[in-house]
Amino acid sequence: MTRIAIEKRLQHLKKNRRNIINGLLWLAPSLIGMTIFYIIPYIQIVYYSLIDNPVQRNFVFLDNFIDLLGNHSFRTGATNTLVFSVIAVPLAVILSLLIALMLEARIPFKSYFRTFFLSPLMVPVASVVLIWQVLFHNSGAVNELTMALGFDRIDWMQSAYSPIVVIILFLWRNLGFFMILFMAALNNIPRELLETADVEGAGPFTKLFAIKMRYLSPTLLFVTILALINSFRIFREVHLLTGNIPYGRLYMIQHFMNNIFHNLNYQRLAAAAVVMTIIMVIIIAVLFVVENRFGRDVEE
User: Fold this and answer.
1) Residue 59 pairs with which residues in a beta bridge?
2) Do 97 and 213 form a contact (C-beta atoms < 8 A)?
3) Phi/psi class of residue 264: alpha, beta or left (left: φ > 0; alpha: ψ in -120 to 50)?
4) Which residues fall within 8 angstroms of residue 75, CB to CB, at 6 or more apart?
5) Buried b (16+ CB within 10 A) or exposed e, 133-154
6) Which of 156, 158, 193, 258 is the most buried (most CB within 10 A)?
7) Which of 247, 244, 271 is nearest to 255 (CA)?
8) 59 phi/psi in degrees, rounded to 5
């Protein structure tokens, strides 16, 4: 290697080192904030899940997790949350995609439909809950309608129909935002591919599954993760509708965590948080693997 080549190599290394230092300096505020407000607190949560209490701090290893998994309230909340997510998340993803595909077509009153589905985003949670209380109260508008049709009065929030009410609330709150994400992704699909498919005589279902769904796979993954996260946050609405101890099928994992927080049972709360984190990481990892295999040819 000549002297000139060595000098160029050293200059290139110095430039790379300078770029790395500059990048770290720009990232420093975010890294410091994430460390202080996320990483350190979560390490502390893991520590609390492995001790008997915050005062004596005796190491008990997995005893808190064994006690948690044997708790009836935890199993009820985890089961109800799982069932709700399994039903609500696919419904939200599929319906928002269908609405986006419908609005992509040339239909009358398209702007009105778009406004209708986006309007829930502007309504605060407390106002949404108030609307649902007016609709589904024991003396609410829905019962007045059902009684006018000859059916009996139903206490919706204290009956087997209560999960359906919450699922409708979840969909009403989230479909508009997910629809916008899908519409943006549909607009980014290369038009020449769709035009070529039309020339080749491909039908709408062929274009949907052979072209559109492949380009929509990253957005599909993103929307699914958002829907999953929001399904775990439905506790806010349920809590405002029913209080700390709702009807059995509406008792979510967040109710359990909220109640044991009030009881100052930090070690059980920390164990529940660690279990939830592990479950969420596994689910999201599986989704990433599926999306990577499904959309690899599009990215290449």
Assistant:
1) 51
2) no
3) left
4) 69
5) eebbeeebebbeeeeeeeeeeb
6) 156
7) 244
8) -75, 125
The CA distance from 250 to 118, in Å, is 27
Q: How far apart are CA 95 and CA 164, in angstroms?
A: 16
The radius of gyration of the chain from alpha carbons, rounded to an integer in Å, stands at: 26
Residue 104: name the closest of 192, 202, 184 by CA.
184
The residue behind tokens 């949670």 is 125
Q: For residue 133, give the H/E element and its range.
A: helix 125-136
The domains of the chain, with CATH numbers, are 72-299 (1.10.3720.10)
What is the greatest pairwise CA distance in the chain?
96
Ramachandran quadrant class, 71 (left: phi over 0; alpha: psi -120 to 50; beta: rest): beta
What are the tokens at 205?
């279902």
Query: Tokens 């003396």 identify what position?
Result: 139
Cα torsion for 203, 208, 214, 216, to the nearest 10°?
150
For tokens 């829907």, the residue is 227
Taking only the tens of pLDDT, the chain with its 300 residues reads 566 666 667 677 777 788 888 888 888 888 899 899 889 998 999 999 999 887 788 888 889 999 999 899 899 989 999 999 999 999 999 999 999 988 887 777 777 777 877 888 787 877 888 888 888 877 788 888 888 888 888 888 888 888 898 999 999 889 989 999 998 888 888 888 877 877 777 777 788 777 888 888 889 989 999 999 899 888 888 888 887 777 778 888 888 888 888 888 888 889 999 998 898 889 888 888 887 776 555 545
Q: Which of 157, 113, 291, 156 is nearest to 218 (CA)?
A: 291
